Amino acid sequence: MNKQVLPKSSEAEIEFGEMGHSLGLLLRLSQLRVFEVFYEKLSHHGLKPGEFTVLWLISLNPDAKQGDIARRIHIKPAHMTKLVSRAVDAGLVERVIPEDDRRSVRLRLTQAGERFVTEKKREFTTYLADENIGLSDSDFSELVRLLRVFNGMEDPK
Amino acid sequence: MNKQVLPKSSEAEIEFGEMGHSLGLLLRLSQLRVFEVFYEKLSHHGLKPGEFTVLWLISLNPDAKQGDIARRIHIKPAHMTKLVSRAVDAGLVERVIPEDDRRSVRLRLTQAGERFVTEKKREFTTYLADENIGLSDSDFSELVRLLRVFNGMEDPK
DNA sequence: AGAAAATGTTTTCCATGGATAGTATTTTCG
DNA sequence: CGAAAATACTATCCATGGAAAACATTTTCT
């Protein structure tokens, strides 16, 4: 038998105190958790979380302005440019400059882009729900509902 | 009278569809929202969100190892080094190297650090609760509870 | 019409935080 | 005991995304 049962070394447990109820900290930890599952399950498609979201939005809002989509999901124009360029290089998206207002850039999916989104749609909207996440189905939807209220996307019921 | 009532330009509304129920996207938007309020209300103290959290944890867990604290809140050792160095430079934290195991670094608050934490504690734990956030008090605590379950910090009740 | 303002995107530069490798110290094991 | 492994922190380099300015085009105002 081993000398002691200490699992690893000491693994000293750190107390959170009231900080364990801080919304900010909880949101950060949750997001890291989601990223973990995302990369574990979907990384083989070669897309980052925000990239699929943008493809999805373009598919739902064809010919929307690049800036409008960026603003809606709070990604900065500078970053949007790079993100869209990668999608264009990958052959999933095309930029269209309308004749009547040549300041703006409209986005639409290419054939390949459409195919990609319809094929992967289900996988990208359910990768978490399937996961054993510690939450019952009803708690999961309640969590989503509360976050939607928090973001002004839904009335408090 | 103006020619038209269009509020700004067109401000074309972007549809989210099912993506509006994506936990990942909702978490990201929520976190941005919290950061916004944080910087609006607390930036004058010159601390970033993670920095106050670390001070708090040191205060609750005096002489904890630098690495243990980092691991607990999922910040990487490399980043922890820089973060702690800034706190040391600011005179809030001191590093102690214990004689019996000189590989590790223990952290503790200086006098000034203790004073800072006790003075600001309330402000940093309540800056969101006061805020008009669209959630009733009970929904707010329910949200916190669900996030705690999601992070394995609490049993599903 | 022409100058000034507004709109929308892209370019350049910078801050943040992570990955990898390096250094120092202690522990383990032949 | 001495070499190898383990532990813990730090230094260097890199990727991501944002800020500010530059650029191009269109609209407004006199």
Automatic annotation (TrEMBL), chains A, B:
GO molecular-function term, one example from the UniProt record: DNA-binding transcription factor activity
Single GO BP term: response to stress
InterPro entries recorded: HTH_MarR-typ, MarR/SlyA-like, WH-like_DNA-bd_sf, WH_DNA-bd_sf
Gene3D superfamilies referenced in this protein's UniProt entry, alphabetically: Winged helix-like DNA-binding domain superfamily/Winged helix DNA-binding domain
SMART domains tied to this protein: HTH_MARR
Name listed for the protein in its UniProt record: HTH marR-type domain-containing protein
Residue stretches making up the HTH marR-type domain: 19-152
